[in-house]
Amino acid sequence: MAQSLQLFTSSTTRSPPISLSKHSLSKPPSSSTATFRLPVSFNQFSIRASSSPDLNPLSSASTSQVLVSENGSSSGGGFVSTSATTREFVPAVSDGSSIDVDTVTEAELKENGFRSTRRTKLVCTIGPVTCGFEQLEALAVGGMNVARINMCHGTREWHRMVIERVRRLNEEKGYAVAIMMDTEGSEIHMGDLGGASSAKAEDGEIWTFSVRAFDSTLPERTINVNYEGFAEDVRVGDDLLVDGGMVRFEVIEKIGPDVKCLCTDPGLLLPRANLTFWRDGHLVRERNAMLPTISSKDWLDIDFGISEGVDFLAISFVKSAEVIKHLKSYIAARSRGSDISIIAKIESLDSLKNLEEIIVASDGAMVARGDLGAQIPLEQVPSVQQKVVQLCRRLNKPVIVASQLLESMIEYPTPTRAEVADVSEAVRQRADALMLSGESAMGQFPEKALTVLRSVSLRIEKWWRDEKRHEAMELPEVGSSYSDSILEEICNSTAKMANNLEVDAIFVYTKTGHMASLLSRCRPDCPIFAFTSTTSVRRRLNLQWGLIPFRLSFSDDMENNLNKTFMLLKARNLIKSGDLVLAVSDMLQSIQVMNVP
């Protein structure tokens, strides 16, 4: 494993060769940093090494000051002990010499070390049971990386309140929770159940689906449908699936605008759930195919998301790449300089037909298995999930596995063993993130559901590393320029070196987040410390596998950046002398191997 690379100084005089093994680097010579400059030839990839001076964070060469005292008080953001049992977060001061890190991640690093940090990210849908500030904080403490707001439910005023509370949580408590807004889409769906939070459909009951507008309270067992041609399109004998098959009805009679249906598979009806109908074993999709991907309501919601500065927009029922391109142009025109990322939800036959072009055009994808399972045979959902996860990784796009991960925990405090196995498979496939929907929005045990996702993720990731299961996935070039190709080669080499040398962490300094994303794509064994000077980039990186995003002001001088980083992280007890790290930057084409001094 430990092949020797000849190191050269800046002059023509050769210095003694250093063997790049874990053991040799753990006890460095007087120069503890090896810098690999990368004059890349794609016919024959080469790494040329040169030595660099010692990186001593306490030397006179470093102008940064230690900002954190032993009790954690810091202008760089940290905890001050206020009593024997309580700690108060001190917000960071943007003075150029501070560093911001998620408080939960900081605690994990201190308690369990580098290797035990969770790589799979967690998305929680916020609803009535989790919209309070204390409930949001409990989710953040439990590991929530992204808070999702679903525009199918609630008013814009309610969603604005949730966004404000998440932002306040980040500012006051030191978190970096990103916000994802999910559009409703223009597919056929139910109404709001007359204001009720849910309704139970029992086996054998007769329910009426109607396009009529009722002035007063909805009659008992009556559901509004948003599509005016619904009664004309369905036929007696059709199967009507609610929310991807969670409840099933059979059409037994049509009376004008009303459709009488018999419940054949009982279950819980939720407001604004999607409706699909099947005939002779096939999905009836002609009308859905004619509906626009982005409805008039969606456009108003998108304007709201732009004005509120959300980090991600998840677009429902994407049919083609043109929709994504049009939306990106619209956002650019409405908000110049906006860095909102677009997540394409893969949940329809049209999405699968145009899968690769949709993912290429998007900034990420979500496997929405609930609605997808209503449009394809159930037995195909697992293979489609794996296909989407692998394709997103090859194309360097983050991917979220969503819908019904822990559905039983809406009502029960423990999941089924099958649900645990389902979560484990998504983690084993190396998906970037897992998402809770009803479990965290309206379930009785949102924090317990999040704990299950977190503990299962940690266990499967540890098993993967312990078994040395380095999957040989072919990662094609995704860059469109020569400089992009160089960055990809640097990241691929860095990940391979990190695994071979068993380094403790990879440091990446990135202004846009792109290089951190390329490293995440490689899925190295060690965590990736992603340093960026932009708060919005830091939040967006919180969706991607294995990245621990920090906010840190840095320059083009890598030696100064490392001096500063070592000092600040050591002061917060996040690293210690002797830790072995690799450092890369999108400002300098090099890989640096070093021990923390």
TrEMBL record:
In what ranges is there compositional bias, type Low complexity?
15-32
Task: Name the EC number(s).
Answer: 2.7.1.40
GO MF? ATP binding; kinase activity; magnesium ion binding; potassium ion binding; pyruvate kinase activity
Q: Which UniProt keywords apply?
A: ATP-binding, Chloroplast, Glycolysis, Kinase, Magnesium, Metal-binding, Nucleotide-binding, Plastid, Potassium, Pyruvate, Transferase, Transit peptide
Q: From what superkingdom does this record's organism come? A: Eukaryota
Q: Which GO terms describe its cellular component?
A: chloroplast stroma
This chain's source organism reads Cucurbita moschata
**Segments forming domain Pyruvate kinase barrel:** 118-449
Determine if Cell membrane is one of this entry's keywords.
Answer: no
| Residues in Pyruvate kinase C-terminal domain copies | 488-587
Subunit structure comment from the entry: Oligomer of alpha and beta subunits.
Composition bias, kind Polar residues: at what positions?
1-14
The cofactors required by this protein are: K(+); Mg(2+)
- Report what the protein is called: Pyruvate kinase
Q: Which subcellular locations apply to this protein?
A: Plastid, Chloroplast
- Gene for this chain: LOC111436871
InterPro entries associated with the record? Pyr_Knase, Pyrv/PenolPyrv_kinase-like_dom, Pyrv_kinase-like_dom_sf, Pyrv_Knase-like_insert_dom_sf, Pyrv_Knase_AS, Pyrv_Knase_brl, Pyrv_Knase_C, Pyrv_Knase_C_sf
Give the record's family classification.
Belongs to the pyruvate kinase family.
Q: Identify the metabolic or biological route this protein is part of.
A: Carbohydrate degradation; glycolysis; pyruvate from D-glyceraldehyde 3-phosphate: step 5/5
Pfam families with a match to the protein in the record: PK, PK_C
